[in-house]
Amino acid sequence: MNNLKGAENIKPVLLWKNFDRILGFPHPSKHEQKLADFIFNFGKELGLETERDAVGNVVIRKSASKVELTRKDMVTLQSHIDMVPQKADGKDFDFAKDTIKAFVDGEFVKADGTTLGADNGIGVAAIMALLEAKDIEHGPIEGFFTIDEEAGMTGVKNLQPGFLKGKYLLNLDSEEEGQIFIGCAGGIDTTAIFNYKNVPVPNGFNAYKLTILGLKGGHSGCNIHEGRGNAIKMLARVLYEAKAVADLSLCEITGGTLRNVIPSKASAILIVSSKDDKAFKDKVNDLSLAIKKEYKFAAPNMTLTLEQEKLPSFALDQKVSLNLINAVHGCIDGVIRMDDNLPIVETSSNMGIIKTTESEILIKCLQRSSIDTARNLTSTMIESVFKLAGAEKIIIDGAYTGWKPNVSSPLLQVVKDTHKELFNYDALVTAIHAGLECGLIGAVYPQMDMISFGPTIKDAHSINERVEIKSVEKFFDFVCLVLKNIK
Length: 487
Description:
With about 475 residues, the chain is of the alpha+beta class. The protein has helices spanning about 15-25, 35-45, 120-130, 155, 230-240, 275-295, 320-330, 370-390, 410-425, 440-445, 470-485; strands at about 5, 50, 60, 75-80, 100-105, 110, 140-145, 170, 180-185, 185-195, 200, 205-215, 250-255, 265-275, 305-310, 315, 335-340, 345-355, 360-370, 395-400, 430, 450, 455-460, 465-470. The strands form six sheets. It has a six-stranded mixed β-sheet with strand order 2-3-7-4-8-22, covered by helices on one side. Strand 2 and strand 3 form a beta hairpin. Helix 1 (about 15-25) crosses helix 3, helix 5 (about 230-240) crosses helix 7 and helix 9 crosses helix 11 (about 470-485).
């Protein structure tokens, strides 16, 4: 294997072979064209019915493995081909050009200083293996490969009636072995933009860079309840308390990379009046100790550093600077409400990005909820905070609905019975506080019966992402038996 070292003898062989091939194509969201082309050609070379729609989604259909199985209803197996691009500090890596280098590390496969793309590359590889295999019993199947799930779900948002032919859908984008998902959260993006003017730095000021590093980051849906800490919010907390003891203003603030990733680092360059230097430094030091104590277990590697910088020529006008600090500090973030019936998060928000350009400061937040009205409420609460702080523009867009659980689903019963048959214990039937594509697919194909499951993937959307090898084999065996058992 060229991109996955040490996996030559792990099973299932076809799945891991295809995952290795996937790793060889750069495929962050919005840049998955080469991988989509590869998958399209993969279907054609197998001699299978292969189509691509106007936005780039690919479907590959395969007839039943035996003549007597041709009367079975078609099953759609679905995964997204894009991945979340995250890299370690100092890692020289361009996700749009470079290929992921992965390796076996004990019981897991992980990448070298980047996200692995097991979310959702393992699902893609599993579908490819099923399409390629000659010895797996199944009725008619189609592999549905979607684009751009992680950065807006534009693939399924543009799905048209008639493109899919399946009666049942198996979404292979979940991350907990032994769990069957029958519902998911919807989402919406809330973006605030502050315009500012640069003003000359007055005399008697010093410049500093305040940096927070080493948080765990992670998936803003699956990990939001773990209290890992949001670096942007931590930075705003320090700035908010520091401005009470020192005359200060921002020059630049930055943090996070994607709206659906919990930020693991953030920094600000600011100017502080020389007369307030000691009070400022003492406050930062006190807060550093306090935050480290609070996050001793949730973020044991967190560091807060303060370094003196060369004095810049300009800073943000102080009114905008202080309003911004107030707004980011006051903006709701994390778990908003737990579900009334399931032990999962119902509604949450993640402040994923803050960045400074030549004339604007942009803040991007993602709200998730299994209830559309609660999702919208959280978004408008955030809108209100930024309006009060004087943001010039607030954009609310990208809304997608959740997937309402159907506990009476015939497919669910088959999948539950198959799990018990194969593993001799009952799977946990639940919903997930993340955006699966099932809700949007179901909006176009309301009669389609669907469930979601997958292998164990740890710390998706972070540089610590890893997939458990044993669970991948069990997952693939499970998919195969489900296909056999669907009547």
